[in-house]
Every structure is written in structure tokens, then in C-alpha cells.
Amino acid sequence: MSITMYTTPSCSFCHKAKRYFKENRVPFTEYDVSRDPRRADEMVRKSGQMGVPVIDIHGKILVGFNQPEVERALKR
């Protein structure tokens, strides 16, 4: 399973998304875009957005944390 999440430390929805993945034992890779300009550029290329979190689940790009959308993407 390939999940990448682009976050910032001050983002409350980023914290909710991380908590959801950890509680459900879903492995993910996190990139803090406030500290890594290369990953910030990658996030914008993937999503067309500057807002976080951006979650890439098997190539499906989700902007923000919407639990039903995340669960649908995980089932694919």
C-alpha cells in the first residue's frame, strides 16, 4: 500500500489524518512541506493546491482530510 501525506506542523486536519492512519494501522510516509521545498513543489504538481494535507493514496490525490473519501480510496 502506497500512501504519501504532505503536511505542516500547524495544520489541525493534518493531525487528524495522521491520527486516523495510526489508529487504523495504515502505513504512510509523511513529508513536512514547511521544511522541504522540493516536497512542497511535488505536492503542488500532484494536487494543483497549496493547502494541506494533501494525501496521495495509490495515485488518488485528496486535498484536506475527508474520512469517507480516504476510506473509499483505501478500498481501491
TrEMBL record:
Which biological process terms from the Gene Ontology are attached to this UniProt entry? cell redox homeostasis
Could you tell me which SUPFAM superfamilies the record lists for this protein?
Thioredoxin-like
The record's listing under Pfam families reads: Glutaredoxin
Q: Name one GO molecular function term.
A: electron transfer activity
Report the residue ranges that make up the Glutaredoxin domain in this protein: 3-60
Matches recorded under NCBIfam families: GlrX_YruB
Descriptive protein name = Glutaredoxin
Q: What taxonomic lineage is listed for the species of origin?
A: Bacteria, Pseudomonadati, Spirochaetota, Spirochaetia, Spirochaetales
